[in-house]
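Researcher: Good morning. I'm working through a list of sequences from a screen, and I'd like to move beyond sequence-only analysis. For each chain I'm collecting a predicted structure so we can compare shapes side by side. This is the next one on the list. No need for commentary yet; just the structure.
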Amino acid sequence: MGAGMRGRDLLSPLDLSRVETERVLELGHRLKAWQRAGVRIAPLAGRSLALIFQKPSTRTRVSFDVAMAQLGGHALTLSAQELQLGRGETIQDTGRVLSRYVDAIMIRTYAHQEVEALAQAATVPVINGLTDYLHPVQALADFMTIQERLGRLAGVRLAYVGDGNNVARALMWGGARLGMHVVVASPPGYQLEEQAVALARIEAEASGGSVELTGDPHRAVRGADVIYTDVWASMGQEAEHERRVKDLAAYRVDARLVAEAAPHVLVMHCLPAHRGEEITDEVIDGPHSVVWDQAENRLHSQKALLLLLLGGNL
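Model: Good morning. Structure tokens for this chain:
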């Protein structure tokens, strides 16, 4: 299973072709159905996954740990302070050593270059669990959730409203490759860089999708099938919180903004949410919200990813 994907890294949504992404999602749906039916499998028995955390985590930590357990494998959760990384060992040497012990490595850190350096040195698959630049495993869970609710991805209009951050970039790249129409609404100074947008537009041209940037959140959500938002101050940006709240106040996802989208619109947030800032209680807890499905689907999509990268047999 997973011919062509076994042994590969996942650092970016663009590390997977459209067909490979669809394969991950299809397997994720199947694994979710099996779990709910009480089917127990152990295709990764005897396999180990190292989880390196240089940033705090709830969903990434728990979903990867539980994913390995449900597949019959084992996860080792490691903070940078617990490793020799905390005493100056290079990320490359850490990757070389861990490759002798485990079958794959997941890392959640700040600089994307660190993940790239780890992947270059390691001889086992490396998965980007989040960097300041990209969050590809979150995007996989999001696409799974949209497909689950709407029955399709191609042609879906996804409006991302708020800070043009790692999640926005991953959704834009992955969505463009899958034939989605992605609109990112951010104020000046918070928009995605032109180089990333240009790359997404190349993908969209090949897939039949589209990519648009706007400063108007109302224009972005008009007719949208999905409205997506994230915190305005990510980890490491706490000192900028007050300024960011002021700059992004017009981009809050509230009931009035949701009413401008399609009647069937899905509201998404990767969590944790700062309720009352980027999203209101009535929206995140309201009938359009699929936030908790997103969180659950981190587990199922990552189980599929691990199976395909490690070559487990069902």
